[in-house]
Amino acid sequence: MACGRAETNIMAMLKSNTIFRVHELTRMLEEHYRHSITILDKAVKVVQKPEDEIHMTRHIRYRLRIRHAPNRKTEYLTFYCKISPIYLLRITPIITLNLLMRFRKEIYAYKVMIPNMDKFQKERSQITLRDTDLFSNIFPKCYGARLTLQVSDAPDSGSALVLDDLPQRGYVNMDFRNGIDLETMKSMLRLLARYHGTTLAFKYVLPYKFDEVIDPCLKWFNFAPDSYVCVPSEVDYLRKHILKTSFKTRIDVVDRLMQFSLNNMTQPTTDAWVSVCHGKFMLYNVMRREFDVPKFVEFKIIDLQHQVRRHVLTDVILFLMTSCPPNFTREQCDIALYWYYEELFNNLRRYNGVILTEFKKHEFKYEVRDTFKREFVRGLQMLRFVCCKKIHEDKVRSLSTWPRYDLREIESCIDYNLYYRRLQEVLVNIFDHDIFDL
Asked: Which ranges carry the CHK kinase-like domain (predicted)?
């Protein structure tokens, strides 16, 4: 019933002025290509993510035939239009505001943050950069966005974000339920290091501009629950499930670590390492594409609505806790962290003004350990989401208030066989292998 209602709402939006019309698309594409274009044909379709996805986001897929004015060349163009989540009429007003503000953050990420990072790289890098080295190449191409139909900066039912249609270009979702192999982990950590390295360098070289331009793109609002706040009931919930694993005999150690994490999640972190953090860097927020000639794999980071100003190693810890392969050893973890550090340091030293002594290699492991202790509970939280089955729309109220959701409702979405297996693997990696030097 809920899905049918949402589908009806979207179709109504298609017939109204809340979705881009031809003249708006033309203006947007002319701004993107920087020359005149003509839209010859347009096809529009409502799509949603595959059945095995834990997301419930719907998109509008546009397929256009356009003609470029300079050379009169004709091409087909396919892209996604992510629409405002306000069509979910069953949720409460406060949660609607929460979702809209996150959507606003993603629009600002593509329209403000990413272009500024590209400009910074071109102007300040001490080495010549290829287009593939630019910050924007880490994400889907953005053709344009609209925050509102009104004269304001508050998102509404007209909010829309137009992005490259990655599935049509051969990109596929990662196997986030079973983890990845070591080589794929190496590539993804290097991608993450490029992301963090550029934003950290921007903060050091242009600190005032970072505070004035980038930081506003990362802020939460008072009525939007802070994703970094954890409630005691969540710790009790995690403890109950840990007691069902072989680690029940070591629950006292787990209790101490969870209590430390709960008490220190929102504490200030070392300023040198604080910059733009993705917030949910896990396999379901990365897509990959394999190329045969030349042989390589390309990744794209998606879903930027959870970006926040925080210790960048937060992303690394969440990634390792939710995405590492089975039987992950201490030695493999050390190698993975080494890959990340080397790529991060190489990115930082491209720019004059970065205080490289703030990022000494022998101090890196202490930063990893301290960040892990703070993020331990959130890592276990997100592991549960990784182990979810398809989440139906009637669960959106619970998900939208994460982590303040109704735990009884969300339990019905979890694949517990998978969850206990992954939970056991994570705890073995942490305590038996001592991969975070506890």
From this structure: 161-350
